[in-house]
Amino acid sequence: MQATLLHGERDIRLEEVPDPKLSSGIDAIVRVTASCVCGSDLWGYRGVAPSRGPKRIGHEFMGVVESVGDRVGNVKVGDFVIAPFYDCDMTCINCRNGFSTSCLHGGWWGADDRDGGFADGGQGEFVRVPHADGSLTVVPGGTPDAALVPHLLTLADVMGTGHHAALSAGVREGSTVVVVGDGAVGLCGVIAAKRLGASRIVAMSRHASRQALARTFGATDIVEERGRDGIERIRELFDGIGPDSVLECVGTEESMNQALRSARPGGQVGFVGVPHQAPTLPLRRMFDTNVGVRGGVAPVRNYIDELLPDVLSGAIQPGLVFDLELPLSEVAEAYAAMDERRAVKVLLRP
Amino acid sequence: MQATLLHGERDIRLEEVPDPKLSSGIDAIVRVTASCVCGSDLWGYRGVAPSRGPKRIGHEFMGVVESVGDRVGNVKVGDFVIAPFYDCDMTCINCRNGFSTSCLHGGWWGADDRDGGFADGGQGEFVRVPHADGSLTVVPGGTPDAALVPHLLTLADVMGTGHHAALSAGVREGSTVVVVGDGAVGLCGVIAAKRLGASRIVAMSRHASRQALARTFGATDIVEERGRDGIERIRELFDGIGPDSVLECVGTEESMNQALRSARPGGQVGFVGVPHQAPTLPLRRMFDTNVGVRGGVAPVRNYIDELLPDVLSGAIQPGLVFDLELPLSEVAEAYAAMDERRAVKVLLRP
């Protein structure tokens, strides 16, 4: 089959790899009908997170079940399924606690899981899913309308991750919210905050098209300033003290600093931006202001059951974050478009 | 009047200072009937947090109202009152949000408040309270029984601070909890966790007397190990993954590290130990495990109304953390006893 490999800095290739095979009895093979490129894929692509040798890549996909192991019970051949951006069994204690990204048996796409079985990357024709019953969610009603596909695909990562940012930031009915980051996750964070009942949502963005999308998703205000000026502007908007909740959806030291200093005393930062360069948090500042920090790698599998009905009904339309669609054969161009910020997020079809 | 001053490292003196005077119309003078020494007072005493010149000290006190400004409405001459470990107005937006330690007008005992009026230290004969209506809580029923005084006095700081640690750590009905730190605050953290319905509470302590008190307060298990061994032991006790909530009640880098590594994936650290030496938190570890960190300088004034009835009824007995009582004239010995760990916490009477 064809699958995407990262060979090195800005070197992405679609190549022939071995077809996946069932091997454990609890696995499944999925034929990928849609996948996409994640902002976090760009870290490796840009050489910021160096990786050794060619590496399978892609962790957001959906598709049709081609075959299942003999002990798989929740999914069957022909089902249309969504996978989260990782593999998990949904039966271990961490999965049951709501944190399936800490599954004791699962792992990451494009790598061996904790039980030693290989999971293919998502940007390819087929994927072996090691824990089929845990990882895969069947979309009711069979193959969905083409128009629904982008929205469903966000449940694999960005919509669930935005939801995790909002939950981690303690967003509830009536909360005042600031979202740092106007990428796909930040924009989904706006949707999530609105969905959870936030009374006011500020999107920090300097890009007209992203500002417009943020407003479509429920942002009530836009702030273009950054750094000290941005914090000052945010304070002015919220009684001179700042908002209840800040969603940090970037992952740089600068953006976390922005988030931490924007929240009101006793407020909360929910963070989902993958932190790079081993950043740290200033504990003394947190102590003095009682601003909490919580978040991390989002357990999106635990959120799919809650979010899927809202996607199917059209109540939320997170798929609008996709602004480019390409065939898998042009995966290299998909990366380049996102790297050069010509696209927010690219959807790939076979 | 007589008041306590910190002159330098291990140099505490009771000296004659000017009697406080009403000056703002919203202030009160309180005759102190009981005060105490805080673990955080020891940082200055030990020279870890150096201070310039003689400095008034003491921030936990209760007493009888001697006089009030003409615009004070909530307290009157003769009332028996408890003060929190800081001054606050309870009307500004931060106070109303539940974070009176970030009061826009209040300040700290032994220093000028944000409006420029001096607040005496608590370890003295009298204290001028700048925001009397906000800071002071009247104990119903007039002068309390002597036996109740230690318990009431903990509402000025340690009991409210332990409660804040537990709330910040997300403790609720059925939570599994570890408390790092067996000082007065840690022990009050055990009380708070029990009161909030924790199903299992581990106290980390190496001192037989503190272990016994922790058990009296509701600890179900004691762990003596620290560092890597301590984390290992805690994991064993909680399904191999750790507890839901960890209360960090020390304030060193070592204790925070212990706390952060002990919590289960998706768990929460509530921290109230005053952080020294500008420690930082490893954001990447928090990201990978989804362990949140929240806490800080405890808004105990916001908690007094909730905790006072349980103290008055005897449902909780936090005053048991006092294991030495001295006259104010022996304040230097009080500090020495705590510094040398001969006492957990010392109560001072006039």
TrEMBL record, chains A, B:
Its cofactor is Zn(2+). The keyword Signal does not apply. Keywords: Metal-binding, Oxidoreductase, Zinc. It comes from the Bacteria. Residues 27-132 form the Alcohol dehydrogenase-like N-terminal domain. Coiled coil: none annotated. Residues 184-307 form the Alcohol dehydrogenase-like C-terminal domain. The keyword Repeat does not apply. GO terms for molecular function: oxidoreductase activity; zinc ion binding. Belongs to the zinc-containing alcohol dehydrogenase family. This is IMP dehydrogenase. It comes from Amnibacterium flavum.
